[in-house]
Amino acid sequence: MMERWGLPWLSVNVPVGHWRLWYPDGYRPPLVGRTFSHGVLDCYSLIQDYYRERLGLTLPDFERPDDWWAKGGNLYLESFGRAGFVDVTGQPLREHDVLLMQLRAPVPNHAGVYLGGDVLLHHVMGRLSGRETYSGFWERITHRVVRHASRC
User: Model-level pTM?
Assistant: First the structure.
């Protein structure tokens, strides 16, 4: 959270009286193998980091409250247009396309990046981020495919 908000943290051991001030240093874990923390290190932050590292594009951050998909939110369909993406559903997949998936929810609530060669980079709650074959289950739950306007 310190890195996400860019603010220093103060840790205090009350009984002992020790304290330490921590400063954010811009650290982001590697794209593959990161632990999941909703709103901090999740499927959308993975897409943000992928686009920044691989394409030099900075995507806006969106507040992602817990269970937004179950509380009437439709974050991905409402936000990806504002982030510069266009719907290319039905067109052949291209490297860097973002796949919006509906994972046990009433609206698309998961996303990943298509890396080409039927490989998906994504981060599911309760698992480390990683690459998987894009077929079967992941293909069936894909609701939309969006592409950044700079890649069209």
Answer: 0.84
